[in-house]
Amino acid sequence: MARKSNGGIGRRRMLKGAAGIAGAAVGSGAITGFPVIWAQNNRNIVLRQCGTGVSAINEIAEKCKADLGITLQMTALDSDAVVQRVVTQPNSFDIGDIEYWMVKKVFPANTLQAMDVKKIKLFDKIVPIFTSGKLKPDSVIAQGTAPSTVSFVEGAGSTKFAKDQTQWFTLVPTIYNADTLGIRPDLVGRKIDSWKDILDPKFKGKTSILNIPSIGIMDAAMICEAAGIVKYGDKGNMTKAEIDKTIDFLIKTKKEGQFRAFWKTFDESVNLMTSGEVVIQSMWSPAVSAVRGKGVPCIYQPLKEGYRAWGGGLALAKHLQGAQLDAAYDYINWYLSGWVGAFLNRQGYYSAVLETAKANMSADEWGFWMEGKPAQGEIKNPQGQVVEKAGAVRDGGSFYDRMGAVACWNAVMDEDRYMVQKWNQFIAA
Amino acid sequence: MNRLKSWVTYLQVAPLALVFLLFLIVPIATIVVVSFFDYNTTQIIPTFVLQNYEELLLSPVTWRTYLQTIQFALITWALTLVIGFTVAYFVAFHVRSPTIQTVLFLLCTIPFWTSNVIRMISWIPFLGRHGLANTTLMNLGLIDQPLEFLLYSEFSVVLAYVHLYALFMVVPIFNSMMRIDRSLLEAARDAGATGWQTLVNVIVPLCKPGIAIGSIFVVTIVMGDFVTVRMMSGGLSASVGLMMANAMSLLQYPAAAANAVVLLLLVLFIVAAMMRLVDIRKEL
User: Fold this and answer.
1) pTM for this one?
2) Is the dihedral of CA A61, A62, A64, A68 positive or negative?
3) Could you tell me which residues of chain B have a Cβ less than 8 Å from any Cβ in chain A?
4) CA separation (Å) from B153 to A401, A424, B23?
5) Does residue A343 sit at the B interface (CB-CB below 8 Å)?
6) pLDDT computed for residue B283 by the predictor
7) I need a surface site. Which of A357, B35, B126, B160 has the fewest CB within 10 A?
């Protein structure tokens, strides 16, 4: 039996007792050098996690199985499908891997349960963007659905967001990042330093923005504001008049042939860039890496107006209870304990608890990804492929340079319904 | 005895009736009911409002999108009809050996062994700015600037539709042609008809059911499509299906349901019009 348990990672049915102890030995010190011996009573627990593709990473599921014994079944969906799943099929998942803007939308549907921060061991170490909202004590909270505004509810079982920190946490942050425009430095032929540069007539028919209304509208707002077309009160919560002006401007731009296409999925954005169909477009950080990975030059260009930030996290389904709920807390505590953080940081994302991630990264890796220092040696991605050579510097610089220059967060607006109608009008125009 | 007989008849139709009830009537009824519900960001509110229909029918976007979709359907229909008829005609009348006929017919279906989406996506690298088509034309010296309209345009959408759905025309028309009594063609020739006259006065009328069936396939598929339009237009064009998909992705199910009801009525109307022109059952 013990022999089987060592070999069969996928096996769910296992006797506790002797086999469990053997498993514990394998799962902890012997192989990974991991200092903590995790609870081993999770051997036959299965957690179904549904979320966006960015964080449905097989390596994490494998490591989780090895460290905790929990079997993670991951389903990757696009953002819209995640919202639908969470609201309409609450029993089809145990862990919702959702984004902060979605929280505003799905938490009131009462299909998720808030977490008790007392059970989250490293809660105090979580980057303050997600708790107090201020990266540094003097930071200003950016526009849009800033994570801190939807991080807490008023009580256990409540669906009402609290203004200040409470004991009840909606989402444990997993991945977040600051987004900007991606460019082909070999093809743009000029300096790019503002969101409005996407409107340059020189790039006619060679630009793209993303066609996910709630994110696309934010990129559009950054562009309109930079170009002086619209002055917004709050880009993350536009008035009808602001939406009208933004969309009308987009329609005009579209009719003039400025856009080559609108993309909806990660791979579409990669293909548009590598094939040279577009030279400047909205992009996500790993898409830039993917383009570079194909040997095509691509820069994630910092812009003077700042970044559009986004973040995701793990939420617990309402139906979780008993051993499964305990396992979910184990999983979350494990997630914050460093290995995953280092894994995510090496992909160019940021993780929730920096200290533990740092302990799992080399000084050179930490310097390159987090401090904006030139790489000393080759920088590898989590899969071991070399992504940057010695001397390279991360686009946009350090963690504080990037996350400190966030202009707005992905958002759900009060005029959401109206915005979507107008967005459809833009696509149909 | 008669009463018993009628019971037997009812029993015989019961299974099919049940299947239709469960999988056709109930879902459609649900859509109709939901189309009158109200909604907000997170919930669907069971009530009776006409707002979904008002927002839909009073919006110029809807009309433009419907016109665009109908335009796609018409162009695709015309092209697939010409191509489908020609291919079927060649295989049915020009190829004499039944073996070769079968082989050629199977050949037509081979591309359909791969996924619909793959066949569509494979056009993208081919038509792109630096794609095979543009590179070839430029190397031949025929053009000196890449042709931008090849991809992410209405052209590429229609191209993909025709490629994907031509077979739906070929099969029923081929089937109709194979049922034409060859002695009718000989009689036409004996009576002095030219090849063209035979085609117009004999073959086309006898192929009507096949044409009608093919047309129904093509038109209904194109009217309801949303993937092809999105992929091939690069998100620059809209279709009715895409409108619904957008609404659903934002949990606006009642709005999508109202749109579905309107689309259903329109397509039913189109199909009814085709049935008026050709009595499919009579001629099968």
Assistant:
1) 0.77
2) positive
3) 40-43, 55, 59, 61, 64-65, 68, 124-125, 128-131, 148, 151-152, 230, 233-238, 242-243, 246-252
4) 40, 18, 37
5) no
6) 58
7) B126
**CA distances (Å), origin A250, targets A116, A216, A258, A273, A317:** 44, 11, 10, 21, 38
Shared domain check, A248 and A208:
yes
Same domain for A146 and A232, yes or no, is: no
Q: Report the C-alpha dihedral over residues A120, A123, A127, A132, rounded to 10 degrees.
A: 120
Residue A134 sits in the same domain as residue A268 = no
Structural domain of A111: 38-177+309-361
Q: Which helix (H) or strand (E) holds A83?
A: helix A79-88
Q: For residue A372, give Cα distances in angstroms to A300, A365, A397.
A: 14, 10, 4
Nearest by CB to A428, which of B64, B124, B129? B64
Domain count, chain B: 1
Q: What is the pLDDT of residues B228-256, one digit of tens each?
A: 998 899 888 888 998 888 888 777 889 99
Same domain, A81 and A147: yes
Q: What pLDDT is stored for residue A127 in this prediction?
A: 94
Distance from B212 to chain A by nearest Cα, in Å? 30
> Given A81, A211, A276, which is nearest B130 (Cβ)?
A276
Q: What is the CATH number of the domain that holds A283?
A: 3.40.190.10
Work out the mean pLDDT of chain B and round it to a whole number: 90
Q: Does A81 touch chain B (CB under 8 A)?
A: yes
Q: How far apart are CA A272 and CA A288, in angstroms?
A: 11
Q: Pick from B253, B250, B246, B41: which is nearest to A105 by CA?
A: B41
CA-based torsion, B139, B144, B150, B155: positive or negative = negative
Query: Are B236 and A428 within 8 A, CB to CB?
Result: no
| ipTM for this model | 0.74
Query: CB A105 to CB B41 under 8 A?
Result: yes
Same domain, A289 and A344: no
Residue A333 lies in a domain: yes
- HSE-up (13 A, CA, CB side) for residue A423: 27
